[in-house]
Write a structure and sequence with these properties.
The complex is a heterodimer. Chain A is 37% helix and 26% strand. By secondary structure, chain A is of the alpha/beta class. The chains are: A alpha/beta, B mainly alpha. Chains A and B meet through helix 2, strand 6, helix 3 and helix 5 of A and helix 5 and helix 6 of B. Bound molecules: adenosine-5'-triphosphate and magnesium ion. Magnesium ion binds next to helix 1 of chain A.
Chain lengths: 246, 229
């Protein structure tokens, strides 16, 4: 049986009085790609942020690699190096060069030697075609380039799980392809386990082993990727796919 | 014939005394600024921590030094506190202490403001790669805050230097105090000497403060240009 990387049980999340996630249950196996889809405001970002402790949750359990997480800041800090996250707004640190952005985690958090970390960083930069920019500052890069670097920065920690939250949503259309290709390659060639929030339905169909469809903070359906886009099980999901012109 | 007033500056050791006074002023300001700015950064960082009690106490500290006029602070620390507590510090040290504490209070506000204006996503990106709180401040937040806060810091420095003109009130032999003595001692011989003495003090303060304030303005302008470009 495949190894379970994350498991979420009965998770409930409130913003003050507002109940935004209701009884969330799912798990993700090693090497699996899960697309988290749903209309705006359905709670996708909130859910994905609960999975690396950026948002506290009020009830429920998250299990990572077979261990139940005791949700203290210290524990989350340790676990986060195993969970890479890339956000919609490509937030490279503007005060550091591209290479230093990438090295910060491996060198300061994981205490890798600078030489070893640099060698792996440069290999990753080669893979995304940005090796020549290692000494540039983020402000000298385009949005697409920044987002590719942000992905490299997360990968440099050798994560066991990657979380992507609408990483192409603020990119110019001609930049989107390159970033999506990197994510596809990661799924296919490196067999990376990941949870992907996206508005790009074609992309989701292409990479998702499974789709979680979220609405109003509830998981309405969990369907195999191949099936979801052809025959969604709920009317809500059907309506959602229609609204996305899919 | 009346002597030309400007000669008051060259009478005896007057000019040397004035520069000596200036040195006292600069020394007090410099030591107070170094101590105050360092303490201010620490307090500013602490004021962004989640502890409400800590934030409240530091906020009180800031308001105390902000609301009470510097003159009153100087009197309080020089005349009143020593009597109550039985300590006796020389005026120069009292002045340095008051200015350092005041600088720290104002600086804490500047640093806090700069830290909280670093976008939230920067903080989260740092947390997402596993940085500890200390590392987050050290490598991400403070370096970005510094470039935001530099103009305000320089403005604070010029304000502190200007305010040192109050030092004479607790009888520190600063440049103003020396100037006053020179004026009084030479009043008979140089009735217009007062203009020259205060004139040169004006020039002294101007020469120190103007480049700083010009620098602050230029940096602010550059930053706006960068932000809009
Ligand atoms: N910091 C916050 N404070 C209060 N409410 C919030 C906060 N963040 C999100 N919400 C609310 O929680 C709900 C879920 O938001 P979330 O951002 O997770 O949705 P989403 O599915 O990611 O939407 P989108 O597709 O627009 O990114 C929304 O109703 C939103 O208004
Ligand atoms: Mg979102």
């Amino acid at each position: 049986m495949a190894k379970e990387i994350v498991k979420v049980e009965h998770l409930e999340k409130f913003y003050q009085k507002r109940h935004v996630l209701h009884d969330i249950n799912f798990s993700v196996n090693e090497g699996e790609v899960v697309a988290l889809l749903g209309p705006s405001g359905s709670g996708k970002s909130t859910l994905i942020r609960c999975l690396n402790g950026l948002e506290p949750y009020q009830q429920g359990e998250v299990t990572f690699n077979g261990e139940k997480i005791v949700p203290t800041e210290k524990n989350w800090q340790k676990i986060r190096q195993k969970i890479g996250m890339v956000f919609q707004s490509y937030d490279l640190f503007p005060n550091l060069t591209v290479l230093d952005n990438i090295l910060l985690g491996p060198v300061k958090v994981q205490h890798q030697s600078k030489e070893a970390a640099t060698a792996s960083a440069e290999k990753l930069l080669d893979q995304v075609g940005l090796r020549e920019y290692e000494n540039a500052y983020p402000r000298q890069l385009s949005g697409g380039q920044k987002q590719r670097i942000a992905i490299v920065r997360a990968l440099a920690l050798n994560p066991e799980l990657m979380l992507f939250d609408e990483v192409t949503a603020s990119l110019d259309p001609e930049m989107v392809r390159g970033v999506l290709n990197i994510i596809s390659n990661l799924a296919q060639d490196s067999n990376m386990t990941m949870i992907v929030v996206t508005h790009e339905m074609n992309f989701a169909q292409q990479i998702a082993d499974r789709v979680l469809f979220l609405e109003d903070g509830k998981i309405l359906e969990q369907t195999k990727g191949s099936q979801f886009f052809e025959q969604p099980q709920t009317d809500r999901a059907k309506a959602f796919l229609d609204s996305m012109d899919f | 014939m009346a002597h030309s007033g400007i000669n008051v500056l060259f009478e005896g050791r007057n000019l040397i005394r004035l520069f000596g006074g200036l040195w006292t002023t600069v020394e007090i300001a410099a030591v107070a600024l170094v101590l105050g700015l360092i303490l201010g950064v620490v307090l500013g960082v602490l004021r962004t921590f989640p502890s409400r009690l800590l934030r409240f106490v530091l906020r009180l500290y800031l308001e105390f030094f902000r609301i009470i006029p510097t003159v009153v602070l100087l009197f309080l620390f020089y005349y009143i506190l020593p009597k109550q507590m039985g300590v006796n510090l020389p005026a120069n040290q009292v002045a340095t202490l008051v200015f350092a504490l005041w600088t720290a209070a104002e600086m804490s506000d500047i640093v806090r403001g700069a830290l909280i204006s670093v976008p939230k996503h920067q903080r989260e990106s740092g947390m997402a790669i596993g940085l500890s709180r200390w590392q987050l401040y050290r490598y991400v937040l403070i370096p970005q805050a510094v470039s935001l806060e530099l103009p305000a810091t320089i403005n604070l420095v010029t304000r502190v230097i200007k305010t040192t003109s109050l030092l004479m009130l607790i009888s520190v032999m600063d440049v103003i105090n020396v100037g006053q003595q020179v004026v009084e001692a030479n009043n008979q011989k140089y009735p217009t000497g007062v203009f020259w003495v205060y004139g040169i003090i004006f020039v002294m303060y101007f020469v120190i403060d103007y480049p700083l304030s010009w620098w602050a303005k230029r940096m602010d302008k550059k930053r706006l240009e960068r932000a809009n470009g």
